[in-house]
Amino acid sequence: MYSFNNCMVGIIGSGAMGSGIGQIAATAGHQVVYYDTNIPSLDKAKTNLTTTLQKLEEKGKIKSASDVLSLMSFTNDLNALKDCGLVIEAIVEKLEIKKEVFSGVEKIVSESCVLATNTSSLSVTSIASACKKAERVVGLHFFNPAPLMALVEVIPAIQTDTALTQAAYELMKTWGKVPVVAKDTPGFIVNRLARPFYGEALRIFEEGIADMATIDWAMTELGGFKMGPFTLMDFIGHDVNYVVTETVFQSFFYDPRYKPAFAQKRLLEAGWLGRKTGRGFYNYNSTEMPQPNKNETLGLYIVERVVAMLINEAAEALHLNIATAKDLDLSMIKGVNYPKGLLSWCNEWGPAKCLGMLDSLYEEYHEDRYRASVILRKYAKNKELFNV
């Protein structure tokens, strides 16, 4: 029923994400139409894509930059999308704006055109509700930078045609991506499971247990993560990272597990957004960066506390059928470069150890933030391991 063979692909939004997604589609042989109301943004996207593709040609990653560029067109006329078989929206994370865009696009494209959103944290179901044919709407969440990051979360709305979910999944594979299917819940897989990486690190920092440099050192040197949480938050930008945290917190009816931190909110209010502004948790204009306290006992405590919270989040996602155990693990490896899948990590430690750490934190704080997932408690009791 749904065929994307040789279809024209429309991209709404010519920022970093939209440009990257269009690059993937054009490289896969699709004619791509970039639409944006901002003409300077379109011009910038075209210039950047030309440079990027030429570099890829020089490195032997693609045969011809000019061939890929010839498949791309750039316009501020929405009607240019009328012949598309797939339109992917990659604009600002504001629900009402997305709904307005989808409602407008649906009036232009054909009955068979599939409409996809690259939202990272908003309800695909709510976006789809703006369309008369909501069954043709699906979430395709790429990760930044889209051409380099392998993972794509395929998120069906409750209205989405089942056949479309499978067709979108298969399309992502033909585009060279690693797709996973996620239930339409706040944060989907990666942005949900990753919240404790930031949240628990911020809690440890705010309590004065360790400073940011020490926490970053512990998570990279002892935990095996590519980047520490404070370095990563600065890299992502607090205008993005904090807003996702706040959105997930609100969407989960203010569940304390997702509670934002004032330490990060104040940076956003100050305009200290991280690397992009030269200052965030770290001052990138300074010649001297803070040095960590390399106390291994303290470092291991930090790693185990943060990882236990991450594992608990993955276990809860499995319990609520957000995705399969395999896809949950795959998502964190391919989507955010974790050293291993969280459920596999739990298997290595043993569910009983993870449960013991969480119960100890709950006993100390008496906060619902540290409640252990029922599935983790069950696995610990029965001495079972996750099937990953």
**Biggest β-sheet: strands ordered side by side in the sheet:** 3-2-1-4-5-6-7-8
The rough form would be described as: globular
The CATH architecture of the largest domain is Orthogonal Bundle
Radius of gyration: 22 Å
Give the topology string: H per helix, E per strand: EHEHHEEHEHEEHEHHHHHHHHHHH
H/I helix tally: 17
Q: Percent range for helical residues? A: 40-55%
Question: What is the domain tally?
Answer: 2
Class derived from helix and strand content:
alpha/beta
What is the terminal separation in angstroms?
32 Å
Unreliable segments (pLDDT under 50, ≥5 consecutive)?
A: none
CATH names the topology of the largest domain as N-(1-d-carboxylethyl)-l-norvaline Dehydrogenase, domain 2
Please explain how this structure is put together.
It contains 17 helices and 8 strands. The chain has helices spanning 16-27, 39-58, 65-69, 95-106, 124-128, 162-174, 190-193, 195-206, 212-222, 229-236, 238-251, 262-270, 296-319, 325-336, 342-349, 351-365, 374-382, and strands at residues 9-12, 32-35, 72-75, 86-89, 114-117, 137-142, 151-156, 178-181. β1 (9-12), α1 (16-27) and β2 (32-35) form a beta-alpha-beta unit. The chain is α/β, with parallel strands linked by helices. The mean pLDDT is 97. The chain has 2 domains: 9-181, Rossmann fold (3-Layer(aba) Sandwich); 191-382, N-(1-d-carboxylethyl)-l-norvaline Dehydrogenase, domain 2 (Orthogonal Bundle). Helices cover 50% and strands 9% of the residues. It has an 8-stranded mixed β-sheet with strand order 3-2-1-4-5-6-7-8, sandwiched between helices.
